[in-house]
Amino acid sequence: MTTQRHPISVAPMMDWTDRHCRYFLRQISRHALLYTEMVTTGAILHGPRERLLAFHPDEHPVALQLGGSDPQALAECARIAEAFGYDEVNLNVGCPSDRVQSGRFGACLMAEPGLVAELVGAMRSAVSIPVTVKSRIAIDEMEEWPTLDGFVATVRAAGCSRFIVHARKAWLKGLSPQENRDIPPLRYDLVHRLKQENPDLDITINGGILDLDTAARHLQVVDGVMLGRAAYKNPYVLAEVDRRFHGASEPAPTREDAVRRMLPYIEARRVEGVPLNAVTRHMTGLFQGQRGGRAWRRHLSDFAHKNGAGPEVVEAALARIDPPKGFSQAAE
Q1: pTM of the predicted model, to two decimals?
Q2: Residue 228, pLDDT above cutoff 70
Q3: What would the pLDDT profile of 33-78 be if each residue is shown by its tens digit?
Q4: Does the annotation count 108 as an active-site position?
Q5: Could you tell me the sign of the dihedral formed by the alpha carbons of 70, 74, 76, 80, in that order?
Q6: What is the distance between the alpha carbons of residues 284 and 77, in angstroms, rounded to a whole number?
Q7: Does 206 show up as a binding residue in the annotation?
Q8: Is 123 known to sit in a ligand binding site?
Q9: Which residues lie across from 35 on neighbouring strands?
Q10: In terms of C-beta density within 10 A (0-12 exposed, 13-18 middle, 19 or more buried), how is residue 45 classed?
Q11: In whole angstroms, what is the distance from residue 215 CA to residue 68 CA?
């Protein structure tokens, strides 16, 4: 099985990368690989599966991130993901929250590479789509390079060929999940070394990367770059992905283009009873750093939560932008 190349991806982010967020980001880049929020095996097997997993066909390429530590449950969820049409299944071995640890999954699994190999093997035997792993470089007092090197060596033996590595250690005790995204120092050098010593593996680097110029420099060493909060808070950072990394010939969409592409989707969701702010909360950063950006955010904040609000609210917010400077075609 060969994994399709994805030089730029957007990280799985709890409470952020839901289906509305992903559909919006897809209006800016057609090719960036988008990840779901982490979904636990228990939620899929025993919860509202359709609500949790359904996505719009335009979201492709899209990957489902799973949280779990039971081989049979993960294999079944991988089969379900493939049936839903996901392009990849990713195992979360990086989340440091207490709730995740109590379920024996997330970053704590870095201490059990043999189990992770078993989980990956079970999922790979169940599906034909790629099974990938997202991890940290180490946890707690574990030494960083020996931990990362040994973890990848064990898991690759189960057939995993693509690793996404958040280039920070995770501290399971003493730091909150938010602090774990900022306080442990970034060790890009270790992820670069991982690729250099495993040239046949597909290695994606994650953590603190804010723009495509920085991404391009990393791509001289590794295979992929995963953007997280930068892509959520300033989604137009993705505007040049298709041209720079996929050879697209058409110009990057303007910010106005992205908004207008969302209007039919917003109307369709209103008919289904989805509140407008469930969609527009992901769009507020679109005019980050642009004249009128504050007025855009304020109008959505003031009116998108009202009953029955729909595309007209978004169009009114768009009218608050001061043209033509609000519609720069260049990525920030």
Answers
A1: 0.93
A2: yes
A3: 999 999 999 999 999 999 999 999 999 999 999 999 999 999 999 9
A4: no
A5: positive
A6: 33
A7: yes
A8: no
A9: 63
A10: middle
A11: 30
Annotation-wise, does 329 bind a ligand?
Answer: no
Question: What would you report as the CA-atom Rg of the chain, rounded to the nearest whole angstrom?
Answer: 20
CATH number of the 8-243 domain:
3.20.20.70
Q: How many CB atoms lie within 10 A of CB 102?
A: 10
Any bridge partners for residue 131, and if so which?
A: 89
Give the helix ranges, DSSP H, for the chain. 19-26, 41-46, 49-53, 71-84, 98-102, 113-126, 144-156, 177-180, 188-197, 212-218, 229-233, 241-246, 255-271, 276-280, 293-303, 311-319
104 — pLDDT class (breaks 50, 70, 90):
confident
For residue 176, the model assigns a pLDDT of 72
For domain 255-327, give its CATH number from 2.60.120.10, 2.40.340.10, 1.20.120.1460, 1.10.260.40. 1.20.120.1460
pLDDT bin (cut points 50, 70, 90) of residue 183 is confident
pLDDT confidence band for 326 (50 / 70 / 90): very low
* Pure H helices in 54-180: 71-84, 98-102, 113-126, 144-156, 177-180
Out of 21, 95, 108, 160, pick the active-site residue: 95
For the chain, where do the domains classified as CATH 1.20.120.1460 start and end? 255-327
Q: Is 60 annotated as a binding residue?
A: no
